[in-house]
């Protein structure tokens, strides 16, 4: 179906989102446009007095800070957040059964001994500390050039941390690296240490479950005469062992999706994010898993997730995680509502409430079955809420470490970044998809011109192809990074 010049998402909404640039004098949804309104920005459908809530997605996205007349442009000049600090949450979990929307598929993946399933058959090289990051990269480059058939690649995932860290900050670095070492896409893992760092090799290996250590090797650079030769030999030994693995048909119950948005615009909550929500419903409804993170980007919308909690314990854990994250902001003297970036604002998003109400749509209607701390791994089928900030690289690394086999990354502005798990870039608007075909894998702007069911079928086909081995744009561009959440002092 074709949509009008602006879209009202809910009957209660007092604003609509412009689907094209609007000019004064245009008549849209029965309202005469007063101001020039860029695509993705908001058009007032009703008069708002000062202090009155502005409604989008059926919920308040802030309060008017000056009178807003019908037809006016609604943005930072007349709308401000109403978010405060920590909250007391009332209510209870009202989870309903998960459903698949009839989207049933199989994919070709690698079954691992621990019951997980990989979308790639790779060797990962992880440095314990930034001092040997270049060493890890050199080992990976040499070993990749010699890799046997059956190995998709040998890659170094480097970072600047692992030393001069203390307490929980060091533990977070260790946790994320240990979780990455257990990822099903890593058929073998080489840990490269220096020897004198805070993040000692032995302590890192202890964080990896005993049953997973058979596919882990390590090199301590200070303890050997030629760490490059030893590292290449260890990586190729792992590759030889892993090269015999073969893809086999698997159901959606064996797939784990990571759900992420970055560089959002005013269309993200109308096109790409609801479409990804369909994918979360399809996979969780089939018995698989999806992981949602970016906790600051659910502020103001957390009760929508709490209402779908599997039980009271999950309900309380969601509230506790949100309050803990808000306290993290407040303890550093920062407001909890400062999240929308310059790119978000330019794209039409005004407040964090608006951004959050659009962002949580990536979770569809799936039941929230678990809440996991940063560096943790998804443990339950259904939708897992994972502790991590909104930063694209940090949160996508956390999604990979938690076990995501494919990351669905929606964007209205575009980014070339890629992460350890195949990262499928989904444009919220067709203009971005046309301008950046080297970055974008799927155009969710088609939602505005086609039935949502048709778009969902097409996106699920693309996910299946990528999970089964087709490279993403980021993989073709050799974009593969990790970033670790730094939370403490540096010695």
From TrEMBL:
Report the sequence similarity comment from the record: Belongs to the UxaA family.
Q: Sorted alphabetically, which keywords does the UniProt record give?
A: Lyase
Taking every annotated instance into account, which residue ranges of this chain make up the domain SAF? 13-80
Which lineage ranks, top first, belong to the organism behind this chain? Bacteria, Pseudomonadati, Pseudomonadota, Alphaproteobacteria, Sphingomonadales
- Recorded source organism is Sphingomonas plantiphila
What's the protein called, per UniProt? Altronate dehydratase family protein
């Amino acid at each position: 179906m074709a949509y009008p010049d602006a879209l009202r998402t809910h009957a209660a909404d007092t604003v609509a989102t412009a689907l094209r640039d609007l000019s004064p004098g245009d008549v849209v949804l029965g309202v005469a446009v007063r101001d020039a309104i860029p695509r993705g920005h908001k058009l007032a459908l009703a008069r708002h007095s000062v202090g009155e809530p502005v409604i989008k997605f059926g919920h308040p996205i802030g309060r008017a800070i000056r009178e807003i007349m019908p037809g006016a442009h609604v943005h930072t000049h007349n709308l401000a957040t109403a978010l405060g600090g920590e909250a007391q949450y009332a209510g209870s979990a009202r989870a309903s059964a998960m459903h698949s929307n009839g989207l049933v598929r199989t994919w070709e993946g690698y079954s691992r001994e621990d019951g997980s399933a990989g979308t790639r058959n790779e060797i990962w090289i992880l440095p314990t500390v930034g001092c040997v990051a270049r060493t890890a990269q050199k080992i990976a480059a040499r070993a990749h050039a010699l890799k046997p058939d059956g190995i998709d690649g040998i890659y170094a995932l480097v970072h600047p941390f692992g030393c001069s860290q203390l307490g929980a900050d060091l533990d977070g670095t260790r946790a994320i690296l240990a979780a990455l070492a257990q990822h099903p896409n890593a058929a073998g893992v080489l840990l490269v240490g220096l020897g004198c760092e805070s993040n000692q090799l032995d302590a890192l290996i202890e964080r990896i479950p005993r049953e997973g250590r058979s596919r882990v090797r390590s090199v301590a650079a200070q303890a050997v005469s030629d760490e490059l030769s030893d590292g290449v030999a260890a990586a190729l030994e792992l590759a030889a062992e892993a090269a015999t693995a073969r893809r086999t048909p698997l159901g959606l119950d064996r797939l784990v999706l990571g759900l992420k948005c970055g560089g959002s615009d005013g269309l993200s909550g109308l096109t790409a994010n609801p479409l990804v929500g369909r994918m979360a419903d399809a996979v969780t409804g089939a018995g698989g898993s999806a992981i949602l993170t970016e906790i600051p980007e659910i502020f103001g919308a957390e009760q929508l997730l709490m209402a779908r909690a599997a039980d009271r314990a999950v309900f309380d854990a969601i509230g506790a995680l949100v309050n803990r994250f808000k306290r993290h902001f407040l303890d550093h003297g920062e407001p909890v509502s400062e999240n929308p970036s310059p790119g978000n604002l330019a794209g039409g998003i005004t407040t964090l409430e608006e951004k959050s109400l659009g962002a949580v749509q990536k979770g569809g209607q799936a039941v929230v079955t678990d809440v996991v701390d940063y560096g943790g791994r998804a443990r339950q089928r259904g939708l897992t809420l994972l502790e991590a900030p909104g930063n694209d690289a940090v949160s996508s690394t956390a999604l990979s470490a938690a076990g995501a086999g494919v990351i669905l990354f929606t964007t209205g502005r575009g980014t070339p970044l890629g992460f350890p798990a195949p990262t499928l870039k989904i444009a919220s608007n067709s203009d971005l998809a046309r301008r950046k075909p080297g970055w974008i894998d799927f155009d969710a702007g088609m939602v505005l011109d086609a039935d949502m069911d048709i778009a969902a079928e097409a996106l699920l086909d693309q996910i299946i192809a990528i999970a089964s081995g087709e490279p993403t744009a980021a993989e073709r561009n050799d974009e593969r990074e990790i970033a670790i959440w730094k939370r403490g002092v540096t010695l």
